[in-house]
Amino acid sequence: MTHRAARRLGPLALAALPGLLLLATSNLAVASTPTASAVIDDSIPADRFPHRAEEARSKARFAERAAREADQASVMTPNQYQFDVTHYGLDLTLSPSTSTLSGTVTTTAEVTNGPVATFDFNLKNNMTVSAATSGGVPTTFAHASNIVTVDLDRSYANGEIVTLTVTYSGNPSGDSFGWSSFGGSPMIWSLSEPFGAREWWPCKDHNDDKADSVDITITLPDNLVVASNGTLVSDVDNGTTRTTHWHTDYAMAPYLVSIACHPYTVFSHWYTPQAGGSPMEVKYFVYPSHFSAVQATYALTVPMIDAFAQGWGEYPFVNEKYGHAEFVWGGGMEHQTCTSLGGYGEDLISHELAHQWWGDNVTCADFHHIWLNEGFATWGEAYWKEQSAGVGTYRDYMDGAAYFGPGTIYAEDLTDFNAIFDSNLSYNKASWVVHMLRGVLGDTDFFAGLAHYRALYGGSVATTEQFRDAMEDISGRDLDAFFQQWIYGEYFPVYGSSWVATPGGIDLTIDQLQTNTGLFTMPIQVRVTSDAGTFDYTVEDELASQTFAISVPGTVEDVQIDPDKWILRQVQSTVTNPTLAQGILLVNGVDWATYGSEITSAYADSTFWNDFPITFWDTFSEPAGGYPPNVPEPLGHGAVPAGTIGKYSAVVWVGNNYAGDLADWIETPIESYLDAGGNVLLLTRMGSDFLDPSLSAYLGINTTSVQTTISSCNAQVAGLTNMSLIGTQNLVDLFSPTVGPNSTLLFRGTSTQGIGVVVEPPAGGTARPDGGRMAYIAGRPYRYNHSQLRANVDYILTHWFGEPYSPAVPVGEPGIVAVPFGLEPCAPNPFARETTLAFSLSRKGSAELSVYDVSGRLVRNLVRGEQPAGASQVIWDGRDSAGLRVAPGVYYVRLHEAQGTVARPVVLIR
Description:
Helix content: 10-25%
Oligomer: single chain
Number of strands: 48
Strand order of the largest sheet: 8-7-11-5-4-14-17-16
Low-confidence stretches: 1-48, 62-71, 808-821
Shape: elongated
Structural class: alpha+beta
Largest sheet: 8 strands, mixed
């Protein structure tokens, strides 16, 4: 890794918003000249991202074996620095009946650091070398430690061309080459990323030495069709065998050389280049039984090529072809001009196609910088959605790729292949780096920068720093801080904000609240709504706390930080003036398009709220077939604003962590809402992602296993019921059944699996002293028996949350008497020594009778727990829970039970 020394890590320059002027002076900045806010499309993509994780797992499989063999895969020998390969010619014979590969590889190379008398090639020791030539004559060789060293026929000087051959044979079966089958017929495949070419052919197996051209000639049984790179030169039937010859004149890294062999059905589409002229063939090699199934999504391939070519420049290999060859791995592999596909989903196709520009044409110089391949291709999926379905779909797609965990995008350890192909870092978070850079630069400079980057490094390789420099060349911005914090740093910024009105605008203060990493230097979009309209500004933020003076027409009503989510961040908002008066807010966080009838049937059965009145909120858009008839129209979509959530006494969040709902949970001020006294029931599978350390501590739980499968859910509290499973409860996070002192275990699986918990914080909340309660049930909520989960939700809402809830007399307002409901006026009142508190319950159940002072502090619990139906009374002697006499003054007696909460003022005198 080469960093330029002594580069300034100061504030970034302005983002490219038209007409924006920003002047920075110390920690006070002034922004002016607003631009009108754009309208975005809110449609939701129908298919999502499992292909990424599957591809990452597939590509990383080779890691375990490489680690076991302690192979220095990423390190070139000193000799390999002395020559540059210009051509490979593979002439191979494949025998699936004996699992044998035999053949000769011819290498042509130019000497760059002579004199040199030997060439080193990477080839695993399980392959046997039988002969070698140099300059057309036989020569000697050695094969040890996975290196073939060939003695040249003479010493060669700089600039001289060397041609040599290696003849070899063996069974290369493993993680990079396979003798598989499909439908009863052989399916021979290769997948060489990152260091697997050496498993099946001798080469200089390193990205930064691309051969200028490659020939691949394969002889095999004549019922098999060979798909490979470049253009088909010939396909000759030899009788019982056939010989197929492919050729490419485009530079190619060794790991992108590919073969896929099967009795394929072959068909083609055609792409017209951007400048016109002869169409390019788009050729598909599919399993015969899949021919009909692939038609719909394969038909999108040519429109994708066209969309990418318009945005990123012409398809890089337009003089040859593009194509797909089905193979047996999950996910896909972006073999140059002929992607190997383990599926045929739209997102998988767009991802692998995007690699032809970013990964194949411009290749990461080494796998430390793999994000330049995978992050770009993942962002390419979202870019295709933008081109085909609109910018709103693009933003929703990026939401689904957000990753808020630890780790650097830069792959530090190349012996850890799971780190190289980490779906969270190399794929998802890396795609956000591309997205954020687009936000920093604006579309004009961003796409011009991509064109410049490709012009510099197309047909070659690049590092993060070279990409950075290319984008700086076009934008004129100093991007050191951006790449340092996002590629080599961890985590993300957490922003808090406040504003005050000033004559002609506002003073906006933005705080960086993150504690697990350093400060971020980022331009932040600010959207200000006033009675004159909605206006966008950009401020340059780099300090722990920074105030910006912004000129705004009209009277300001609302301010949003990064409203269009150009930054991978969290924005902490605060619930202020909560009323908690509007009952239950039910929030859907399960993607309708992905889960279909699984989730719609659960809603149709009122699974998550029983017969309680609800207000509905959807983090996604309306499902294609509309909402079930018993579900009211949603109040809103996305994250729940602080001003909205504070109106409700309880929130039931049906979560999933798939397709973007986690980002909306994070953006919703759940902790602030709990602090205010709101109650939350969270139903979700990946709880460790929803429950940050503070929320886990709040619940009193410790996660012990992640993304596991549960087979039972057994109630641990009388009043709850066991829940049977109506689908696979996989990818579920579980916790220790030993919970905190204020928590109650609700459900467990095995003796070591905690599944459900509820916490009753003794201090309650600021606006509701008996509130601030949180319950959590792990699992996919749509795959629990609907009637059993419905009964349990009802019990939690009734027994622990006190629904339906009626707010009591506001604390601190003496003289206002609540409407009588089961609690008689205290007598005597005022009192000096003791007073009688008479109350009644309409049914047997849990109840609390407590005394609070005017600040909302709990003074004493007089009754707590199961109580009989009918009238009861208790005496308060003016003492607190420690037995000490309290000071004279106004107090409130509150009765809370399943029917609601009521309060009475009482005055203590001495």
